[in-house]
């Protein structure tokens, strides 16, 4: 079995700040991390490898320093890592990125047939959730988004059964492989890397592919040229207008505090009180 | 795991990086293990970089190290509640390269230093805690990490795991650190436009100012405050002995001392409008000469904060860390070349090199200093007040003749501190500084 997991290196958005004067994003000194959603995809792929054997190949498009993100994935137990990196890719939006990654996956396929492609649900810096579906479309793969569990994988008959979170419930879907899965967050817990894997990762020679290695045929479809998206303005969110209400707890018993809190909530939201009364077992 | 290393360095601070870099550059097979997410993620310092110590390790560090400003002016302030008396030393000599001291931001500097270590060929593993040393008889033979397959073996282990050095304690190499031997320092980095900093401190691009302050800001505790200019931020911090925080009659907390310092009328205008970017706290080993433990044994050496190598009088630490790291590395390199093993008999050369260097000479010179200051908190309370009052009396023009003013000042001193006390304090200081 061969699984390709696509990841992105992103700035740790928890540590990003907006410049107080210019309103631009200050990236200086902000650590780069593996997009957290992608780690759920990685873990799911590693679990399949644990059950069925085979190989997990990591794929990333980005600047040379994204090598670190791929090495990190190796430390968890991925087998191989490829960084698609070329100045020609700079400025890519989701359309151009999915074109480039799909092209790279075709090259990987030439080395070894692929059963599954995993991506995270979305990235924390772009938040579009478009690249995974874009790759699936270009590769004519079955697309399974927001997957919460893999129920069954039948390698012999080339079928996969999964659960996916949908509005109002969980869908149980069965389809054929190869398929592309975008994995939902908090659906598994990433393993703790072993020391030998940490050492292997620190030494791992990540393969670097330029646009030719990645098999790019149409240069007008990559980088800034291939990106119809235009960022017209960047601005920080406006602070909420409603201030939090403070409930003094001086010398109050826990019971008083609870009663005051609930009353304050009901005063703000009368519908909530009504709803609670209707549901309350009498 | 069968793989063996020549050396394992525990920790990726200045001491660990200096050791790993020096050994890897000499061709040794080095594994460096860091507990933090990345090198620098857990490291805290004022931070002033002293060129000399780093130059001896990476001579051309100025080419690409992330340096903020070179220091051209040093201010020493003695503060009471409303005022300060101070000396400023500014010299154009400090404006001629190669510069002697720089302000740095450790998160960035450590990342750079670590990249040099890896370029030199050392293998760095982060997010991994060394839980104990592997010992065979008396001999340290490797480390045990908190990961599956975490036992790793090496000829020599260099402990650069910082002030708490849990490893050395566990192995019995040194005793539990005592609150009387460590300072607790807190600091903030305040973001501010570059032009504002340059106007407020009378400096131009790349020039920097250092302010060291003692006095009533520490609320009677033994400690010092500091304020450094970075490129587009100010670092402000204060540290006092942990034992003093513990025994503080006002139950003063570290952040309260810092807040108080920030509100001091001499300091508040300099930091006005600054936006806090970073807040950190750290322990500093300030026990000095007598607190330095045994620094080597069969298969191990201790460097940096783990060994208590801090000159608290001159606020030097990272340069001692880098120097001890380098000297330990040079000892390991020589031991490998000599082929006589890494037993205590080989590694005692490290202690000899330390004794020969400024590290132990300086610590020895000030060996009684921590004790003198700790036993005599008048240096941090009474004297700052008296000195400031004296300056005010002398400088205020109010029709009183100067002779009377002198008498008034002398009377002030006599009233606060007996003649014997004054003489005694002077003697103690002379002895401690001698």
Automatic annotation (TrEMBL), chain A:
Keyword Chaperone in annotation: no
Lineage of the organism: Bacteria, Pseudomonadati, Pseudomonadota, Betaproteobacteria, Nitrosomonadales
Protein name, entry field: Protein FixA
InterPro entries the record matches: ET-Flavoprotein_bsu_CS, ETF_a/b_N, ETF_b, ETF_beta_N, Rossmann-like_a/b/a_fold
TM region positions: none
Family note: Belongs to the ETF beta-subunit/FixA family.
Key word Transport present: yes
GO MF, any single term: electron transfer activity
SMART domains: ETF
Pfam families: ETF
Boundaries of every Electron transfer flavoprotein alpha/beta-subunit N-terminal domain copy: 22-218
Source taxon at top rank: Bacteria
Keywords recorded for this protein, A-Z: Electron transport, Transport
From TrEMBL, chain B:
GO molecular function terms noted in the UniProt entry: FAD binding; oxidoreductase activity
Keywords, ordered alphabetically: FAD, Flavoprotein, Oxidoreductase
Keyword Oxidoreductase listed: yes
Domain FixC-like C-terminal, residue spans: 369-434
InterPro entries reported in the protein's UniProt record: FAD/NAD-bd_sf, FixC-like, FixC-like_C
One Pfam entry name: FAD_oxidored
Gene3D superfamilies found in the cross-reference section: FAD/NAD(P)-binding domain
Keyword Nucleotide-binding among record annotations: no
Required cofactor(s): FAD
Function: Part of an electron transfer system.
PANTHER family to which the protein is assigned, alphabetical: ELECTRON TRANSFER FLAVOPROTEIN-QUINONE OXIDOREDUCTASE YDIS-RELATED (PTHR43624:SF2)
Family: Belongs to the ETF-QO/FixC family.
Name of this protein: Protein FixC
Source species: Candidatus Methylophosphatis roskildensis
């Amino acid at each position: 079995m061969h699984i390709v997991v696509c990841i992105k290196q992103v700035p740790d958005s928890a540590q990003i700040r907006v410049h107080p004067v210019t309103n631009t994003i200050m990236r200086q000194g902000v650590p780069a991390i593996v997009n957290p959603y992608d780690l759920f995809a990685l873990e799911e792929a590693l679990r399949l490898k644990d059950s069925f054997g085979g190989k997990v190949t990591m794929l990333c498009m980005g600047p040379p320093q994204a090598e670190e993100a791929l090495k990190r994935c190796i430390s968890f137990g991925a087998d191989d890592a490829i960084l698609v990196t070329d100045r020609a890719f700079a400025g890519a939006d989701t359309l151009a990125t999915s074109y480039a990654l799909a092209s790279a996956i075709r090259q990987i396929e030439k080395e070894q047939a692929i059963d599954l492609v995993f991506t995270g649900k979305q990235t924390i810096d772009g938040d579009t959730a478009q690249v995974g579906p874009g790759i699936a479309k270009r590769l004519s793969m079955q697309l399974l988004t927001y997957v919460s569990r893999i129920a069954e994988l039948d390698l012999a008959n080339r079928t996969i059964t999964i659960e996916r979170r949908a509005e109002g419930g969980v869908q149980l879907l069965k389809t054929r492989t190869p398929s592309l899965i975008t994995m939902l967050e908090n659906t598994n817990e990433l393993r703790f890397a072993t020391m030998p894997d940490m050492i292997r990762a620190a030494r791992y020679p990540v393969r670097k592919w330029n646009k030719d290695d990645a098999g790019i045929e149409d240069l007008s479809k990559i980088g800034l040229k291939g990106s119809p998206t235009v960022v017209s303005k960047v601005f920080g969110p406006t602070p909420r207008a409603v201030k939090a209400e403070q409930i003094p707890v001086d010398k109050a018993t826990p019971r008083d505090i609870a009663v005051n809190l609930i009353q304050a909530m009901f005063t703000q939201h009368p519908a909530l009180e009504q709803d609670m009364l209707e549901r309350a077992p009498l | 795991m069968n793989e063996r290393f020549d050396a394992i360095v525990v920790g990726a601070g200045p001491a660990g990086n200096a050791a790993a870099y020096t050994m890897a550059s000499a061709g040794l097979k080095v594994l460096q293990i860091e507990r933090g997410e990345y090198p620098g993620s857990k490291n805290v310092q004022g931070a002033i970089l002293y060129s000399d110590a780093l130059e001896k390790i990476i001579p051309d560090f100025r080419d690409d190290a992330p340096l903020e400003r070179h220091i051209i002016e040093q201010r020493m302030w003695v503060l009471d509640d409303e005022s300060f008396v101070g000396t400023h030393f500014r010299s154009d000599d400090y404006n001629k390269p190669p510069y002697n001291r720089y302000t740095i931001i450790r998160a960035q500097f450590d990342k750079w230093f670590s990249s040099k270590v890896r370029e030199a060929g050392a293998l760095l593993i982060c997010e991994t805690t060394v839980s104990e040393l592997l010992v065979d008889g008396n001999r340290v033979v490797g480390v045990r990490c908190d990961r599956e397959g975490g036992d790793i073996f090496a000829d020599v282990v260099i402990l650069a795991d910082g002030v708490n050095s849990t490893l050395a304690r566990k192995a019995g190499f040194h005793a539990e650190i005592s609150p009387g031997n460590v300072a607790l320092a807190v600091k903030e980095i305040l973001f501010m436009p570059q032009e504002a900093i340059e106007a407020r401190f009378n400096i131009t691009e790349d020039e920097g100012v250092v302010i060291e302050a003692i006095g009533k800001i520490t609320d009677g505790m033994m400690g010092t405050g500091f304020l450094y200019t970075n490129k587009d931020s100010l670092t402000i911090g204060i540290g006092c002995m942990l034992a003093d925080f513990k025994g503080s009659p006002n139950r003063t907390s570290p952040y309260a001392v810092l807040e108080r310092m920030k509100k001091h009328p001499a300091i508040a205008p300099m930091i006005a409008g600054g936006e806090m970017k970073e807040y950190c706290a750290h322990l500093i080993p300030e026990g000095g000469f007598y607190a330095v433990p045994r620094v080597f044994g069969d298969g191990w050496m201790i460097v940096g904060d783990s060994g208590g190598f801090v000159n608290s009088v001159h606020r030097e630490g990272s340069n001692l860390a880098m120097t001890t790291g380098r000297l330990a590395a040079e000892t390991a390199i020589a031991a490998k070349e000599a082929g006589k093993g890494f037993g205590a008999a080989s590694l005692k050369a490290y202690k000899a090199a330390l004794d020969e260097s400024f590290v132990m000479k300086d610590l020895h010179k000030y060996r009684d200093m921590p004790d003198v200051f700790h036993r005599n908190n008048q240096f941090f309370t009474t004297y700052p007040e008296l000195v400031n009052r004296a300056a005010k009396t002398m400088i205020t023009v109010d029709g009183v003749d100067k002779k009377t003013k002198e008498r008034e000042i002398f009377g002030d001193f006599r009233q606060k501190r007996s003649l014997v006390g004054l003489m005694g304090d002077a003697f103690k200081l002379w002895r401690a500084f001698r």
